[in-house]
Write a structure and sequence with these properties.
five-stranded antiparallel sheet, six-stranded parallel sheet, about 20% strand, single chain, about 270 residues, alpha/beta, 11 strands
């Protein structure tokens, strides 16, 4: 997939890195050469120092053949204009980062679609979703609602006292269990596990479960919580503002923003 990202800020840069690791054909545009420095050498990313609203630059970047064009500069108007121009040139899908909540009104969706903007990203809304999800299950590092909330994916950090470590996954998740382990993050490696794989200390395990499961902490999920040397569970749950601060500190905000944005793209491609 050919993807063009306008804006080499924190989110744009991290998003480009994520997509390049997924073998996407990614081009990053920014007027500031310092922001682009070294990226094309370290990652499989094409960089272009130019204005994202320059027709010449967009043509050089290949906007006419782009599957997805993303405007994530700090300037809302520039993002929207870049998307409109890219769409007119032939980009199949466009996404613009905005600062005006009013634009998210459902009755304006068709208006922006006609202009050539398929989707809008409002950072504060994404942040609110992240914090809200963190407060729902503050013992969980990451949480995503999938298919409108029918499924829930939970990212849980494993510790040495977890009872489910070093056992084949086929022993942990059966066909009748309300959860399945769909991915494991081990250092810089991402593993799509099979039945013979096992969880290790400090892994980030991603569980898929259903929203209507009454107690997501049953079974393996419950046994992921950190315990002390006497086997007592260490309750790390927080509430209110403390929970929000815990969630904000545990995960890198730029990475979460890029991941949330990437998830948002998937729904429109």
């Amino acid at each position: 997939m050919k993807i063009i990202i306008a804006g080499a800020g924190a989110v744009g840069t991290h998003l480009a890195k994520l997509l390049s690791r997924d073998d996407q054909d990614c081009t990053l545009i920014d007027e500031d050469d310092d922001r682009l420095a070294g990226l094309d050498g370290e990652y499989d990313i094409m960089t272009l120092q130019a204005s994202p609203t320059s027709i010449k630059a967009l043509r050089e970047a290949g906007a006419q053949n782009a599957d997805l064009f993303v405007g994530v500069t700090p300037d809302e108007s520039r993002n929207m204009n870049a998307c409109i121009i890219a769409h007119a040139m032939g980009a199949k899908k466009t996404v613009a980062r905005i600062d005006n909540y009013e634009y998210l009104a459902p009755n304006l969706e068709s208006f922006f679609n006609e202009l050539g903007i398929d989707s809008l990203i409002y950072p504060e809304v994404l942040a609110a979703i992240d914090i809200n999800n963190g407060l729902k299950m503050s013992w969980v590092r990451q949480r995503w609602d999938v298919h409108g909330g029918a499924l829930v994916m939970l990212g849980v950090k494993l510790h040495e006292m977890c009872e489910i470590l070093n056992r084949p996954l086929r022993e942990l998740c059966g066909p009748d269990d309300p959860y399945h382990i769909v991915a494991i993050k081990r250092g810089s490696e991402t593993i799509i596990p099979g039945g013979n794989d096992a969880l290790r200390n400090l892994d980030m395990a991603f569980f898929m479960t259903t929203r209507d499961t009454k107690d997501c902490r049953q079974g393996a999920l419950c046994r992921c919580e950190k315990r002390d040397s006497d086997g007592r569970r260490q309750d790390c749950r927080k509430s209110g503002a403390d929970g929000a601060r815990l969630y904000e500190c545990e995960d890198n905000r730029n990475e979460r923003g890029a991941l949330r944005t990437a998830q948002h793209f998937a729904e429109h491609v």
